[in-house]
Queue: 2 jobs
Job 1
Amino acid sequence: MPKRYMVIVFRHLLTDALALRRPELKENPFVLAAPVKNRVIITAASPLAEQQGAFTGMAVADARAAVAELVVVDDIPGKAAKLLRLLGLWCIRYTPIVSVDLPDGLILDISGCTHLWAGEHGYLKEIVLKLRNAGFDARAAIADTPGAAWAVAHFAVSRPIVEADAQAKAIAGLPPAALRLSDEILERLQKLGFRTIGLLLSIPAQALRRRFGKELLLRLDQALGRAAEYPEPLIPPVPYVERLPCLEPIRNAPGIAIAIEKLLSALCMRLQAEGKGVRKAVLKCYRIDGRTVQTGITTNRGSHSVSHLLKLFELQISKIEPALGIELFVLEVPKVEEMETPQEQLWALDKGLEDTSLAEMLDRVAGKVGSQTIQRFLPAEHYWPERSVKAAKSITEEPETTWPMQMRPMRLLNPPEAIEVMALVPDNPPKLFIYKGKRHNITKADGPERIGREWWRDSGEHRDYYVVEDTDGQRYWVFRSGYYDGGDAQWYLHGYFA
Amino acid sequence: MAVEKREMIERLQKNILQWEGYRPPPVGMRNLVGLGLVEAAFPNGVFPVGAIHELVCGSSEQAAASGGLVTGILSVLMQQGGVCVWIGRARRLFAPALTLFGVEAHRVIFISLTKDKDALWVMEEALKCPGLKAVVCELGEINFKQSRRLQLAVEQSRVTGFVLRNAADKLGSTSCAARWQVRSLPSADMDGLPGIGYLRWQVDLLKVRNGQTGSWILEWQEGRFIPVEELTLIEERQVG
């Protein structure tokens, strides 16, 4: 079967995508710009901006001079590739083989697909209209080779469909830039007066090779169909989903456990082969009364161990209500993680927080009592006691600073509790304090340690902390809020020392 | 004849200890957790790791003191690296305090729970995990059956468990290896300097399985326990 290719080109890919996300930009001419060698250069201009004289490659300062109300948006590198990939995945509904052609196009292998849309004309119209309705300024062309289709899509004004074996005629009138050549060769061609591809075709290949190298001949052959070209097709990601239909509806816990085990062993086989681990899994149970019940697990670290994941699901089985019976189980994994394959060890080493058995234990605890109960603390650079620790984000996060070596109480009261205090001299440590009706006579005290309020965060008085010891030898952390002379100095108990 | 008999009895006692799971210490490995003379009260003269210890805390002050003693022991257990789990109630423990006792608080995983039932479940799961050095759990009450479950869990994994019991008024029997009580004592004067000296506790061993009970005064000085003076309270009593 003869091959047919379609090339779609998005002439304003980046600006169209931005205008779709931020419709208010459409009113004004806008450009995307990125800094290049101390100058900010326009990387993409909207149609309105182009009309008014701001083009890709201009410096933003020059463009601002030409277009008064120009809006400049920062360019995100790699955005075009992402957009083209998404558009390419969308195009897979028209043909199974789609490849991305950076910076602004897609190449579709449409051999044998077009009859479903009553020929190539209907096929092309369908895709281009759909894309234009979605807001993209798309043009397309069909030819026997990707090279010819590319040339026609980018440079021809009319007749987007090139008949079979008519590439030479179709591209003869187009400029040499339509051959996807490098700037250096284009410049040389320009100097020598080659204004169309037709002029090149009449010159013997040897002469062309001598003057312009292999690239020109290869591109020419690719466009005319004398050399093959293999664009790299997009492969859509296969979601991690397993299904288990049941002949008889499942109504009891052991049955559900067996179903989960079957699903997990199929899933984990695939994950092991790909070196990935489950971070989050959802089990959907379709009941015969038409309802769906679902339950999920999360893990602290990626896992593809059937026994561990099964243990986590077993904690959830009691929450599944089978009613009249479950006829279909679907296990979905919305979040996976790359996993390092652990080396088997002859003897156990102390791996600390990296230990797999520890992560599995924490997963089970999180499944039973909730992950919010598990915390690790890291030192934070604050003197204010309530802020001197912060919760770690992950199980392996390391502290950025060292723990402070000051005397700190083993147990902290949060919030501090008011106490009544007697002190001999205003700035002395207290002589006795009464907390919850019990009187503590103080024999020894250390202090004060003044901790200032972080005024850029909240307002209020500073604290003067004292470590005090009562006659029984019990040690407390008490503080006075503010100065004495304010009249409202209040004492608080904030913690117990060991 | 009498000497022979005594030797035989000693040998039998050693065998019994071994059958009960107490391993004799390797040569030169006494004073394993830095408690000094206190360790002599335990069978074979070694602090039993891979066992459950319960600490009776009647008040917040006692709980803080018990926390200090446990953290001091943890610092030795975690010296070679490793992680421990601290199961507590609604975040009462203040992490920076652990530094004073030689434990880096980021190597402690805190699990805050309010129900005893959950805390016991989590503790049992944690004790089964061989990747941990120790598990500390603050509980209201624990009965014999629950403590037996914990004991069975540690026999497999050799993790050391500490239970801080809040209810001091109704102490039922448990299968724990030792029952401790820690109380703060007034610190000693430091050469007439004002202020508070080294932290000082009275450490009572109320029950020791196959060992002797007793009472000691310990001080925390420069990162280790120092016995102040040995009180002659060791009773020739075995509690099994």
Job 2
Amino acid sequence: MTARPVSGVQSSRGLTGLLLVAVPVLLFAWMTIWPILSGLARALTPEQADGSRPVSFANFVTFFSDPYSLANLGITLWTCLVTLGLLLAICIPLALYLRFAQGRLATYVQTMAMFPMFVPSIILAFAFIRVLGPNGTVDLLLNAVGLPKIRSPYLTPWGPVIGLVWDNIPLTVLILVSGLGAVSNQAVEAARDVGAKPLALFWHIILPRMWTSVAVVVSFTMLGLFASFTLPYVLGPASPEMMGPFMQRTFRDLRNPEMALTQATVTMLFCIAFGLFYVRAVARNRES
Amino acid sequence: MSNLSISNVSKLFSTTLAVDDFSLDVADGELVCLLGPSGSGKSTLLRMVGGFEIPSQGSIRIDGEEVVHLPPEERPTGMVFQSHALWTHMNVFNNLAFGLKLRRMPKAQIREKVEAVLELVGLGGYGTRAVTQLSGGQQQRVALARSLVLEPKILLLDEPFASLDQHLRERLREEVRDIQQRLKITTLFVTHGQDEALSMADRIVVMRDGKTEQIDRPDIVYREPQTPFVAGFIGTMNLIEGVVQNGVFSKAGYSTPVPVADGPATLAIRPEALELTVAGENAQGQVHRVTDYGTHGLVDLVLLDGTRIKAMVSHPDLFAAGQGVSLAPKAIAAYRDNVLIHRVALGKDTAALRQLVDA
Amino acid sequence: MADLVLAKPRTDWVGIGFAFILTVVIVVPMLVVVIWSVSNVWRFPSVLPQEFGFKFWQMTLARSDVWSALTMSLSLSAVVTGLSALICLPAAYAFARMEFPARTLLFFSFLAGQAFPKFGLLVAIAAIFLQLNLIATFWGVVLIQLVGTLLFMIWIPVAAFQAVDRRMEEAARDAGAKPLRVFWSITLPQAAPTIGAAVLLSFVGTFYETEGAWLIGAPQIRTMPVLMISFINNQPVIQYAAVLSVLLWVPSLIALVFTRRVVNSGSFARGFGA
């Protein structure tokens, strides 16, 4: 029997609840739902010379026929895929180690892996330049042992990739380790008991239970990368540029909000599947 | 001091009737146990007295005063929760002093009172401890003290010992009973443990599906259960479903005279009221297993159709598995349609009779 | 004796490998920044600075733009966090404890913002602010950063309020406390540690929020991260940015110390959909 709290008159209580949540809900609707809808509407109704705004796909036609815009979209997708690949390649082994290892060394590795969460990306960008930039620490050390300097990834497409991987390690590891929690020690021991070697263990026992968290990581990272601004802006090349800096420049420097909204709509459409999947995963976790 | 009067109270949770037309009067200083399986509505009833649930209908009076529409903070009741619900961000002293501070009692007086009540529950000097540092039994004592310090007219205990181990539970219930009798505080106690109810209560209310099955003194509830449910719920009871014909109850080869009208009936016999004798030819049952408990033995036997029956014997070594036995109940009760229709307590008279025959 | 040798655990080479690589990749860059901030002279190709000292700390702290950015960042974070707590905590309590129409729908509606890339959303908001003349104003930045805190400041406190044992509240009612007193004396103190962590994370998150401040606020509203971007891009003296980095890091270290328990708990990862 579930005990329910004593209360005053139920209907007045319902009203109180609604009133208490009204401000954040309305603020959220005004600052999230409304901008998305109105942005989409404005991108779909380009302003004509006479001031009228008929519905047309002209803005999107402009975007997709402009080689520079397409190059920017291309570099964004390339960055997403490379970053994602590197993240999974680094974080899956790390998460597996953290799930099954114990002791002080494992604690240290975990602390290290979580550390970037507490480094703001702007500090990371500066540190990146000082270490991997021209005449950075790597160059100093190579020079000291008489080796040639590296070709610095600073201001190349690899700059944002390295920065974003570094930045995303903690959350990726957290999500994967949490997902690996679904693999019980008994399941692993039972598999070893019947003679499974580490590789078979990973393939048949662990991997099948990791898919959900891998999918969450993929969506989460795709959303984050498409939305990234600071690291690409500071570390990336000026041309082609990722969608974040591109939108910012179109909006502020070119003073063309309509085209910026078109670019924003394109990024949102590219992410919609990941976004929906991610939101569903979060909501499901919250409900359970 | 105080009495509690519950009359015709019902509680409806959306579509389920948790408490159904319940009435009970608790006299001043009396400890009444609400006993029943989970889902029987006993906790809901207690929470209605405390003010945490509002009855769908009926009235609850304390010292003749209607309290149904008072919120919990205005009722002269004190509740002790199963999970003790101590405020973990306060130390023991502040847990006890909280209600007194709300009543704007002077500080010195609060200190004095809290210390006295802590002394009463055997936790003198524990005031500065954090409640999380206490053991389970100590936490439950603090919870009791927190209620007692406010001198409630009615003390409500909601399965207060359920989370404790058996040993501690037995000790605490003796302590609680002692304190209750010393303070002469009117108490309503919810439990699903029959031994708890039997050992503590002045009266027991056996509940089932929101309704009262029986209200009586513990010894009477045990010896004279009014319904087969009470018979089966309290203590161990053999319940045999059979048919009465011409004043004889019979079931799979076993029969015994029961002077009631013809029809189906449920026969109830306590294991300790069932005498067994080894029988050869016309055995009524067969011994399945014998368990020796040292002080007594328990014989599991099966009737011809497989019905299992337990009998308590003083000399278990007289019986062995596979033996045929015949049954001689010393006390039986018969029920039909959930109502007691016949009872024989053969008690002393039979013993005297048997002595005569033996002599 | 032989048993003892056998029982000795195998050397954890994988762990040592991870520890070594992570240390190099994660600690060294941070160390380089700190060294830069305390080097008076560090010219190529010396592996270490030629001269250590706090010269540039004095010079950085003497700059008026640093102080105004710090004041701006602190007041923005304080205003945003204060407003956020003011509107979110009562809402969180309502979500956790009250029944009202569309409760679940409204609760999960805060997730909608997560379904879109944040910078795209920011551009959409900026387009609206442009019409409302909120671009490059203090309150424009406050609004955009406030929205960023909503999800965090509602979801974490809701979990905190839900975790408070209802029997504790009932026991307080039983002891004679009115509902408001129960909230103040029992519910809030019980939920306080987690809510405190949420408030701290919201403050620190706002302090480091860069994209919104840059898009909406610049050039008039200049926060520490925005100043940092311009130092990286335009400031030839490396030490200024290095000192600023170390300064900028302080709130994060405080957050690291006080919220580690929350972050390490499984519920935090689940909050991200893990």
